[in-house]
Write a structure and sequence with these properties.
Layout: H1 7-17, H2 21-30, H3 32-43, H4 53-68, H5 77-98, E1 109-111, E2 117-119, H6 120-151, H7 157-163, H8 168-183, H9 185-194, H10 199-206, H11 210-215, H12 217-228, H13 232-241
Antiparallel strand pairs: 1-2
């Protein structure tokens, strides 16, 4: 088993995510060897930062990984960053090909330790496809667990789709109420014990009318269950599209 994550790097990562630019610069400098390793393996040749475009793409992707990393997902940051870098390198290669800068895939051939030919682009694409398939499996598993949670409260996924507020502002308010229920110990305990929303307390805490809360009751409960449960993918989905006017359904509906 390899060494665990560097505590200093974890501290720098947390500070960088909170907007500390000095910590971000220090973190990036500490990971330049990793950036060059990933980019060089992808291209099949030695790269230098400041001289090779692919190295710059990987560096920018690492910086992007700092912002998009979610510690709660349970994936080590280094692994997550490498995935982001590989995907951006693939995107950059495809962009160049679309722009007419034809780059034959054979130029990315290399030999493994046994002397067998291996194409690093195809390998990277296969890796990305594998990760996508794994995410689909995890997503289906979450949907199944979510269905069971909903059933315990007398709600189905079809109910959720049908009762999702049509307007973005109403939907966002309902999601904010759901998060309040999930994060407040007393409100959460009430919901778990009685399988009902604490309407009186919510009316006082949120300023929303009881009629509005009752009309959105099932939707609020359903969203609260996402934040209360071990449903990281669904939670991330909510955080991304909760206020968007272009999305009306939870995934799986």
């Amino acid at each position: 088993m390899g060494p665990g994550p560097n505590p200093r790097h974890l501290d720098l990562l947390e500070k960088a995510r909170r907007g500390d630019e000095k910590s971000r610069d220090t973190l990036i400098k500490a990971h330049i060897p990793l950036v060059l390793k990933v980019a060089s393996q992808f291209c099949g040749r030695f790269l230098r930062l400041g001289e090779d475009e692919e190295a710059q793409v990987a560096l920018e992707a690492f910086n992007e990984a700092v912002d998009s990393f979610e510690p709660e997902a349970g994936v080590p940051f280094a692994s997550f960053a490498q995935t982001v870098m590989r995907r951006r390198l693939i995107d950059d290669l495809r962009r160049k090909q679309r722009a007419g800068r034809e780059i034959p895939l054979s130029s990315f051939d290399e030999e493994d330790e046994d002397g067998n030919a291996r194409n690093v682009v195809e390998a990277a694409e296969a890796f990305a496809e594998y990760e996508s398939a794994q995410e689909q499996i995890e997503r289906r598993d979450e949907i199944d667990r979510y269905k069971r949670l909903l059933e315990g409260f007398g709600i189905s996924l079809s109910d959720l789709v049908r009762l999702t507020p049509r307007h973005a502002d109403a939907r966002q308010r309902a999601i904010e109420v759901a998060r309040l229920v999930a994060e407040d110990p007393l409100l959460r305990e009430y919901l778990e014990a009685k399988h009902e929303l604490p309407l009186r307390q919510l009316e006082q805490r949120t300023g929303l009318s009881r009629k509005t809360l009752e009309r959105q009751r099932k939707y609020i409960v359903a969203i609260a269950l996402v934040y209360m449960g071990d449903l990281e993918l669904l939670r991330g989905y909510l955080d991304r599209v909760g206020g968007s006017g272009s999305e009306r359904e939870m995934p799986g509906g």
